[in-house]
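Entry 12.
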Amino acid sequence: MRPRGAGGAAARPERRAAYARGRGAERWAAWWLRLEGYRILARDFRVPQGEIDLIARRGRLVIFVEVKHRDRQAAAAEAIGRRQRLRIERAAAAFLQRHPALAACRLRFDALLLSPRRLPRHVAAAWRP
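Predicted 3D structure (tokens):
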């Protein structure tokens, strides 16, 4: 089975490279969140309504995290558009339906921005639904 988003063997090399960079950025982001005291609940959560890069928990707080890697962190922040935020929110609702015990927790939508030769920037409450 080929990884989603990579396009398999027929994909252009630059597309496969971008997919690999994105997966690497998600691994780095998960490591960073663990250093901040979060426990990773899910990675690359996908449903027809949308997808979420990382879902993490610390105490009674559950965060839905969009990971963006760009040459500059400002460009990474700008890359999270309204349409993408809506897809993440719908995917979060699907995740909570599957895990009803988490619905009692505080919920937050965060962004983790990565760029070369810089420490990751965790933007808490990057947007509100």
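Annotation: The helical segments are 13-35, 73-78, 82-98. Strands lie at 39-47, 50-58, 61-69, 106-114, 121-127.
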